[in-house]
Amino acid sequence: MPRGKQLSVEECRKIDMQVRERRSNRAIAKLLGRDEKAIRNYLRRGKASSATKRTGRKRKLTEREVRRVFRLAIANGLSANQVRNKLSSLPSTSTVLRTLCSRSYMRYAKRKPTPALKPHHKKKRVAFAEKYASKRKFWRAVVFTDEKKFNLDGPDDFRFYWYDMRAEPKFISKRVNGGGSVMIWAGINWYGKTELIFLNGKQNAVKYTETLSKGLLPYLGELRLKIGNLRPIFQQDNTSIHSARFTKTFLEINNVETLPWPAKSPDLNIIENVWGALACRVYANGRQFDTKTDLMRQIKAEWKKINLEYLPKLVRSIPKRLEATRLLKGSKTGY
């Protein structure tokens, strides 16, 4: 049977007082709401027993090893199992996990992929934020677009690590090459989303404008009917095929107004949030795919399920993103 709760100092004082009044063990136990055996054991062992510390089993890790656990996990980026193998006492992985989780500031999270920001990138990000942060209604007319790769065996950059919440999160470079994959293009806006376009082969400016003809131009036509006096604005990043002369000419001919976008700023593009939600659904429960056809079918199905009520919430977050960019002097935000 498990041991009962240890007698408190106050209870021991009451027992001593009742004993001096020649009360029986049974009467004292009834008065305190305790088992008679607890009273008897206390009197047999003496008053020092109340202060006896229940130490339990000796700790597996010394204080020095505990410090090393955190150092290996945080500084070296090792997993709990890898940390275990570095310790001479060879504790269980569960012991290492309990040690890491014992600190409220420790979290196990995925490394965030991000492009490197140079001073001139940060300067342009701040200028962009200062110009557009207060234009709340303006963002309803912007169509945010981007390409996204989906792998057969799961999403890129799915690597987790232990990190100290009191420090800056770590980042890793995006993986360039993967296994079998499909590439898609799409756009979102306050009012809805474009058609999902699957891209074939290596992309260039000509193929990109074909994608815009299929996905962007029809949506802009629909959008003009919804936004009244506002003029639709097209957002894209600065990859080479987007900024090519052929692409610029195509946009001018079709009277498409573009938004000058700061380089290396995926954290400001709300479609990145949609890509994240879409990937979670496509790869739910560790799902993997044997063929591109199966993967494409799943992507189409999940794209249709994207809740349109989710999109205005993302648009409302843009002024906050820009303000965060300004306050951080152009550095990466948490979005």
UniProtKB/TrEMBL annotation:
Gene3D superfamilies, per the entry: Homeodomain-like, Ribonuclease H-like superfamily/Ribonuclease H
GO-annotated molecular function: nucleic acid binding
InterPro entries: RNaseH_sf, Tc1-like_DDE_dom, Transposase_5
Domain of life: Eukaryota
Xref: Pfam families: DDE_3 (PF13358)
PANTHER family cross-referenced by the UniProt entry: TRANSPOSABLE ELEMENT TC3 TRANSPOSASE, TRANSPOSABLE ELEMENT-RELATED
Protein's UniProt name: Uncharacterized protein
